[in-house]
Design a protein that fits this description.
28 strands, 9% helix, 402 residues, nine-stranded antiparallel β-sheet, single chain, Immunoglobulin-like, mainly beta, DUF4861
Length: 402
């Protein structure tokens, strides 16, 4: 029997993974064997492979039961990979098994999948973490081992509308410039709210000195009307989907907003995987056939790079004694162009990537690289990262299951 199944690419994280399944007389007597194939002349690592649980549990010996989890180990070495059960559609039930194999250029590796005894989870904060932050008004914050972000909720908006100090009116995405590989969200909020310290000063872990205001920050969206851009206000609702060693994900929604004579409905599904500087956004959009994904231009003294056909734009700028790169990657040839929008209005100068809305959805990746974190030393390195990221998204790893 030979069956071919293509997993919906909407749910695939950096880099997306096309899965071709060859089921040949599965009897349950041996571990399920998968081969991960890299067709690019680029070494691949820290890319999340999604394996459909429906496939795994079609084998009686791999049905999940209480007290069991999946074990994925490399054939030959026996090395076990970190794995995570993941809910890609946000319905509260796991849909896929995540792994991050290392595959050299133009080569493949084989792995076995079996069941193992579940061990009680650690109380430590996982690498990929997100949460609602009611103690700081009503932020939503997320992070991994390389970057951190936050955005703002309805209480912060109401405070501005009622002229109460401490509010924030923005649907832009804030960047927290961390330079350590462990979680900082809870630690930084506690420092800001419960001690005399502040996350606006760098004590060795990084700091929040990224200005968002009403800009798009790093990846907020807008819709162009004539010669200007319109956008939503703060998010109105949220739901944390998962946290774990390989991925955190959540959704946030916005009140309907006007763009000229159009009424826009916007809901963002956001995920961030281990090892990636870019969050993935899957945005449900009604009311427009295109959206514009923005990167704030701050002092307008940075350098822009773009490759529309490859699907990426970059902004590299001097920033508080260091340098900072932001970027957007758009898969599947859905990037239509870009616009360096300049204005004298405060915070409204942004670099926009124009993105096609397909069947009510737009998908893009966006994030940053801070020179002081020592992840990227120059705009050339940052642009090379975005270019390679786009290549991998558009030429995903292939997984064959025998």
């Amino acid at each position: 029997m030979k069956t071919k199944i293509m997993i919906n690419q909407i749910h695939l994280k950096y880099c997306a993974v096309v899965v071709t399944l060859f089921l040949i007389g599965c009897t349950g007597e041996k571990p399920l064997e998968i081969e991960v194939v890299n067709h690019l002349n680029i070494d691949r690592s820290l890319e999340t492979v999604e394996i459909d649980l429906a496939l795994l549990q079609s084998d009686e010996s791999l049905k999940l039961v209480t007290g069991k989890l999946y074990k994925v180990s490399e054939v030959g070495s026996g090395t076990e990979l970190v794995s995570q059960l993941s809910d890609v559609d946000g319905d509260g039930a796991a849909d896929v098994l995540l792994i991050q194999p290392e595959i050299a250029a133009n080569s493949s590796k084989t792995f076995n999948i079996t069941l193992k005894e579940a061990i009680a989870g650690s109380e430590d904060i996982p690498t990929c973490y997100s949460r609602f932050v009611p103690e700081r008004t009503d932020d939503y914050a997320w992070e991994n081992d390389r970057v951190a972000f936050r955005t703002y909720g309805p209480v912060a908006q109401k405070m501005i509308e009622d002229s109460i100090p401490g509010g924030t009116l923005s649907s832009g995405m804030d960047a927290w410039l961390k330079r350590v590989d462990y979680p900082v969200i809870n630690k930084w909020y506690k420092k800001e709210l419960e001690t005399e310290g502040t996350y606006h000063e760098d004590d060795g872990e990084g700091l929040d000195n990224f200005h968002v205001g009403t800009s798009r920050g790093v990846g907020g969206i807008a819709v162009k009307v004539d010669t200007t851009y319109q956008f939503s206000r703060n998010f109105t609702d949220y739901k944390t989907i998962e946290i774990g060693p390989l991925r955190t994900s959540f959704w946030i929604t916005y009140a309907p907003w006007k763009a000229g004579d159009k009424t826009i409905a916007e809901k963002k599904f956001i995920s961030l995987d281990r090892g990636s500087n870019l969050s993935k956004y899957r945005v449900e959009v009604n009311g427009s056939e295109t959206i514009s994904v923005g990167l704030t231009l701050h002092e307008k003294d940075g350098e822009i790079a773009a490759e529309v056909e490859q699907g990426w734009v970059s902004y590299w700028e001097p920033y508080f004694g260091s340098e900072l790169g932001t970027g957007v990657v758009v898969p599947s040839n859905a990037m239509l162009g870009y616009d360096k929008y300049m204005t004298n209005a405060k915070d409204l100068s942004n670099l926009y990537a124009q993105v096609k809305v397909i069947n009510g959805e737009a998908v893009y990746y966006t994030g940053f690289g801070w020179k002081k974190s020592k992840q990227f030393n120059s705009k050339e390195e940052w642009n090379a990262y975005l270019k390679e990221f786009a290549q991998k998204v558009n030429a995903p790893l292939e997984v064959k299951v025998k």
